[in-house]
Design goal:
Blueprint: H1 3-26, H2 33-53, H3 61-76, E1 80-82, E2 85-87, H4 89-106, H5 110-149
Antiparallel strand pairs: 1-2
Helix pairs in contact: 1-2, 1-4, 1-5, 2-3, 2-4, 3-4, 4-5
């Protein structure tokens, strides 16, 4: 692999992870800009190492499987339990997705990288609004049910 291709793939991972991290940073999440960028770049580096070492007859899926497992441990560190509440699940899932973006960049799948990056950002931004709407509907239903108990 030419050095320029290596650099381009690394920069693509940095841009995708950075875009994802910027969205998280704007919403004041614990894993923000730097974390998501580094996760994406790190995953890309591991894939690139594998691609470089196995250009003739290697299997990059082996290293990708290890990245998925390793990021699971990193994501677990983001999840917090506070009494009955669990926080950080979306942040952990976003970190996991950031590693996937790095893998796509490392494999040189740039169109797929762009589509995946936009999809993840779309989910984190628009689904948050849907989440709030569902929660407000649930509170209304719970309040109505509580009122019916006392009738």
């Amino acid at each position: 692999m030419p050095t320029l291709d290596f650099v381009f793939r690394l920069l693509a991972a940095m841009a995708a992870g950075g875009a994802l991290g910027l969205e998280r940073q704007i919403h004041n999440k614990s894993a923000g800009f730097r974390t998501n960028t580094l996760v994406s770049v790190g995953a890309c580096i591991y894939v690139l190492i594998n691609v470089l070492l196995t250009e003739n007859n290697g299997d990059p899926t082996r290293i990708i499987g290890q990245i998925v497992t390793g990021i699971g441990f990193l994501g677990a560190g983001v999840i917090l339990h506070r009494g009955m509440n669990v926080q950080g699940l979306t942040t952990a899932a976003t970190v996991w997705c950031s590693a996937a973006l790095g893998c796509l960049a490392g494999l040189g799948l740039f169109i797929e990288l762009l589509i995946a990056t936009l999809t993840i950002i779309l989910v984190n931004t628009t689904f948050k609004k849907a989440d709030k709407w569902f929660m407000s509907e649930k509170k209304k239903t719970d309040a109505d049910n509580k009122d019916k108990k006392f009738e």
